[in-house]
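Is this the right way to post structure tokens for a design question? Let me know if I should format differently. Anyway, here goes:
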């Protein structure tokens, strides 16, 4: 009888100890889960606050309102892994808008024309107060702000879970190789996984390390050593965010700022050789909004000769034209009619200054 009673009290004591231990474990688990949730929430909100700071740290430059995007409809939405496609265009340059629409329609691509800043834009006038006039012209400031606005829009319109998403940015004075969509579709996954920016043109950039050579098409992808242009490139969302943060205070032309980051090994940039995109020649009928210089002057010709010699000395490959120009097949009449049919707001009601 004493043995049974002893066992009963022993078992009861053991059960109490077990219950206490289980209670402690449950409390620890609850505390752990609670603080884990708090930790995750803090990370989430800190990321959102950081993104909000990045997007809103540049005075007056805000993401595009979707009503300002001039949508060009098309059945092909991607160039390789990159979508959407943005085309920078001054509302005053309806001639270039027509050409851009015609070019995009030649490929049956979907794209969005977005308004570039002019030197008369209120945002540029505000930033002009702090401009270093020796290193940065007013038109270069407007170019900086236009690309900055696209990057801010890319960050704003992309979910934080898709930081590796690619977008394409074109300026409105380009021509494209007719096989561009097919060529970009053949890029191996490593290209999209490793690069931060991919330039469709080589930008007077000497070819660096060979990254990839196509067996189907006559083109190569090199590491870009001096990518001094912004007329055609693909960019990742998290790199757009990075550039907004690093280049928020303009001190030099935006392409030179990117080159500086490349030299500091802060960006991995690839360029395509021969180029898939080139800028169309500047003429009296197609004046430049950035480089407003007299190309017939003696001084310009001297400068061009020196620049050409330096390019040759540095190993730049010269391409005056594309292998097969898509613009030569573009239907400008159809594009002009389409533009007039669908233009609205700033695109239709722009008043030149």
């Amino acid at each position: 009888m004493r043995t049974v009673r002893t066992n009963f009290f022993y078992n009861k004591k053991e059960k109490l100890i077990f219950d206490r231990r289980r209670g402690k474990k449950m409390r620890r688990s609850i505390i752990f889960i609670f603080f884990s949730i708090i930790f995750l929430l803090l990370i989430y909100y800190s990321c959102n606050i950081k993104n909000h700071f990045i997007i809103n740290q540049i005075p007056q430059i805000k993401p595009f309102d979707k009503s300002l995007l001039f949508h060009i409809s098309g059945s092909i939405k991607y160039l390789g892994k990159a979508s959407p496609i943005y085309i920078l265009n001054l509302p005053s340059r309806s001639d270039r808008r027509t050409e851009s629409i015609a070019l995009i329609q030649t490929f049956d691509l979907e794209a969005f024309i977005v308004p570039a800043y002019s030197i008369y834009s209120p945002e540029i006038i505000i930033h002009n107060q702090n401009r270093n006039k020796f290193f940065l012209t007013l038109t270069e400031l407007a170019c900086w702000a236009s690309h900055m606005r696209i990057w801010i829009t890319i960050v704003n319109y992309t979910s934080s879970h898709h930081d590796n998403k690619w977008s394409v940015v074109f300026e409105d004075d380009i021509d494209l190789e007719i096989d561009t969509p097919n060529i970009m579709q053949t890029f191996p996954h490593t290209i999209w996984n490793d690069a931060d920016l991919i330039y469709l043109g080589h930008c007077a950039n000497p070819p660096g390390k060979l990254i990839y050579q196509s067996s189907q098409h006559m083109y190569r992808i090199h590491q870009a050593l001096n990518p001094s242009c912004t007329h055609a490139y693909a960019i990742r969302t998290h790199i757009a965010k990075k550039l907004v943060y690093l280049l928020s205070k303009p001190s030099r032309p935006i392409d030179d700022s990117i080159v500086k980051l490349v030299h500091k090994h802060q960006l991995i940039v690839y360029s395509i050789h021969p180029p898939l995109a080139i800028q169309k020649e500047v003429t009296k009928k197609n004046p430049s909004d950035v480089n407003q210089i007299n190309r017939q002057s003696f001084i310009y010709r001297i400068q061009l000769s020196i620049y050409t010699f330096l390019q040759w000395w540095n190993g730049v490959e010269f391409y005056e034209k594309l292998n097969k120009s898509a613009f030569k097949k573009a239907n400008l009449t159809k594009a002009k009619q389409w533009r007039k049919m669908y233009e609205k707001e700033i695109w239709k009601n722009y008043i030149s200054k």
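Format looks fine. Someone answered above. Worth noting: The chain has eleven helices and eleven strands. Residues 1-56 form one domain.
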